[in-house]
Design brief:
Helices cover 20% and strands 35% of the residues. By secondary structure, the chain is an alpha+beta fold. The chain has a single domain (5-186), classed as 60s Ribosomal Protein L30, Chain: A. Strands 1, 2, 3, 4, 5, 6 and 7 form a seven-stranded mixed β-sheet that branches. It starts with a strand and ends in a 24-residue tail after the last strand.
Length: 194
């Protein structure tokens, strides 16, 4: 089963100034969001493997779009994250099926690596809901400068029988980071932590 996509929205956010200071180079984040039909809306289905396959499909599609929106090679990406909102006739497990078992592998392939867990969030909501996509460094979870999030919204999604699915990618950490911890230069990228 392939995703039946109603729309795809891509958002790029670039921060050039923060607290009156120039951010150089600017920090950039991109999110690609797909609004898809929920094939299991309104009914309990034991086998969610079709949604798992859709998650794999969307992992590749959305990560490619987010990287392209930043105009960088996937290997140059710093952070990633994913999120989903299920319309009122769905259940949270539908979002979990899309986000977890198989979405990560194609995202990591597009980015050339990704030793760290991909941060995620899910919720049930209606049209115009805000998705908060958590972000973390793709190769080392302990890089505090990359603990972040990106907020996205589509005014007419998700409808009752839809799921809104997003992948976010960055080319840097937060603007003006200064809370210490492991730096990007210190990353080993072996265990996903450091």
């Amino acid at each position: 089963m392939s995703a039946i996509i109603r729309k795809i929205v891509t958002v790029v956010e670039e921060t050039q100034r923060e607290m009156g200071r120039q951010v150089s180079p600017p920090t950039r984040r991109a999110a690609a969001i797909a609004v898809i039909e929920n094939p299991f809306a309104g009914k309990y289905i034991e086998d969610l493997s079709p949604l798992i396959a859709i998650g794999e499909e969307l992992g590749e599609l959305l990560s490619k779009r987010a990287v392209a929106a930043l105009g960088i090679d996937g290997a140059k990406a710093h952070s990633y994250g994913k999120a989903a909102a299920v319309g009122e006739n769905g259940e949270l497990e539908h979002a979990a099926a899309i986000l977890h078992p198989k979405m990560g592998a194609p995202v990591r392939k597009v980015l050339g690596k990704g030793a760290a867990l991909i941060p995620s969030s899910k919720k049930r909501s209606g049209p115009g809901t805000t998705l908060d996509i958590p972000l973390g460094h793709k190769d080392a979870a302990f890089v505090r400068s990359h603990f972040d999030g990106m907020e996205v919204q589509i005014n007419d999604a998700p409808r009752a029988n839809e799921i809104m699915v997003a992948v976010a990618v960055t080319d840097s950490g937060r603007p003006l980071p200064r809370v210490g911890g492991l730096t990007v230069a210190e990353i080993k990228g072996e265990d996903g932590l450091r």
